[in-house]
Amino acid sequence: MLEALYGEPAAPSLAKEVPALTPGYRRLIEASPFLILATSGPGGLDASPRGDGPGFVRVADERTLLIPDRRGNNRIDSLRNILADPRVGLLFLVPGMNETLRVNGRATIDADRDLCDSFAVDGKAPRSVLVVAIDSVFFQCARALLRSRLWDPAAQVPRAALPSVGTLLAEASAGREGGEAYERSLAERLPKTLY
């Protein structure tokens, strides 16, 4: 039914998918400071942002990626999902580049101290590292980012035009959390707790 609605995929859209990193795909991962990690588990789906300086995802070999699990909010939704279902999807973005890179694979969680220490920043190591065995990798065409004008400075929304995180949290928690006090403490806490 879907094939009748959409038609056949173009040959290049199939040829670009491979089971291991090409030199070009590797360069995109090494240039990326941001990815979205998609997981699935008994509690449902999760899409979680991961980011750090370009190259924060280490290419161990053409079939293996290492992703430090940097400090966050300790919800560990993605990690719980990986324990139940190791399948993951990764979407890498490179600022200014309209194509994205997609990786599908299977992840394990490694808390080996030496491995974690090898990802330390400012003397602070992640608690674990995701080891992703690549099943397939391919680039996604530029249409979505072009349509969204994601990198266009003229399309940027001024932060003050949207609700603050303190307001969002207060609304979501019916006033139990959030507000101005949360805003002040977050502004002080974030720079000190990045790693």
From TrEMBL:
Gene3D superfamilies, sorted: Electron Transport, Fmn-binding Protein, Chain A
InterPro entries given in the database record: Pyridox_Oxase_FMN-dep, Pyridox_Oxase_N, Split_barrel_FMN-bd
Domain Pyridoxamine 5'-phosphate oxidase N-terminal, chain residue ranges per copy: 22-141
Pfam families cross-referenced by the UniProt entry: PNPOx_N (PF01243)
Protein name per Swiss-Prot or TrEMBL: Pyridoxamine 5'-phosphate oxidase
Organism of derivation: Azospirillum thiophilum
